[in-house]
Amino acid sequence: MLGEPNVQRALLLLDDALELCYDVMKLSLGRSALLDAAFERATLYRARLKRLKAVTEPGYSYWYECNSRHFVLALTPLTVADRFREMLDEKPGSWIFTSATLSVNDQLGHFTERLGLTKAKTLLLPSPFDYAKQALLCVPRFLPSPNQPGGARQLARMLRPLIEANNGRCFFLCTSHQMMRELAEEFRATMTLPVLLQGETSKGQLLAQFVAAGNALLVATSSFWEGVDVRGDALSCVIIDKLPFTSPDDPLLKARIEDCRLRGGDPFNDVQLPDAVITLKQGVGRLIRDTDDRGVLVICDNRLVMRPYGEVFLNSLPPTPRTRDLKQAIAFLQAADASAT
């Protein structure tokens, strides 16, 4: 889009306007701090605009975003490997990276290759949690297809008995804001338990309300997939609406897919699948946060057990017992409550 003639003409007009501002303010340098700051900003914007106009430069994704108040022109590097190697050279020594979610199918190559760490030594350590006893993974039968019309209503009807049997204490993590809103609406219309929705107040307040209620369902997306730590009985069920593949319309993903093809790679297995696995692991990690935690993870996507690549997801998740029967999931939660009393 940025390479289209009409857009290039508009960028040229913008550059002319910035150049005029630059020339005028340059004559007034030193007269006031505000003018000096404006000059520096004009200089910065001219340099950024010059880079954005060079849409043929390889290794970058050029994209834009609009809303009712403003627009954003963005340039995003497809890889940070070269820049990161420069940082390593600038600060020689040992670098240690630790994470609970960066391995894919028990391999760390996806992470090391993106950072250009060709000589990195890797080590996978076992979890301190006993997932065989602490957790159960359920992929229910008779799930609606991803993006199926009316899917939110079907999921809400299917999962309401599980949520009610657990007396709330549940995160429902969604892969889109639309699904999040539709599910919250369905649950609020059919359940008496408190239903909290991301966006209705701040993240911190939502978490405080969730813990204080003791029987709430929190329906959320994006930011609640990671960086959230709710331990103990306050959270014993995490439900995920579907495998978190990035939208194919995402401009950065499109650019990375094309770059992968040009390098002779397999875009699905080299880009889309590893990214989705890592995102899923982050969401799954909300459930078991301590050695005393127990709970059920529900993933509402048949592809996990019906598609060959589902094994990559399963092999990357903690080694928990599995079931397709929601009644077994309810029984597990009830047994966990009984053992805690």
Automatic annotation (TrEMBL):
Pfam families on file: Helicase_C_2
UniProt KW Hydrolase keyword: yes
This protein's UniProt keywords: ATP-binding, Helicase, Hydrolase, Nucleotide-binding
Residues of the ATP-dependent helicase C-terminal domain: 177-306
Domain of life: Bacteria
EC code: 3.6.4.12
Single GO molecular function: hydrolase activity, acting on acid anhydrides, in phosphorus-containing anhydrides
InterPro entries: ATP-dep_Helicase_C (IPR006555), DinG/Rad3-like (IPR045028), P-loop_NTPase (IPR027417)
GO BP annotations listed: DNA repair
Similarity section: Belongs to the helicase family. DinG subfamily.
Protein name as it appears in the record: Probable ATP-dependent helicase dinG homolog
Name of the coding gene: dinG_2
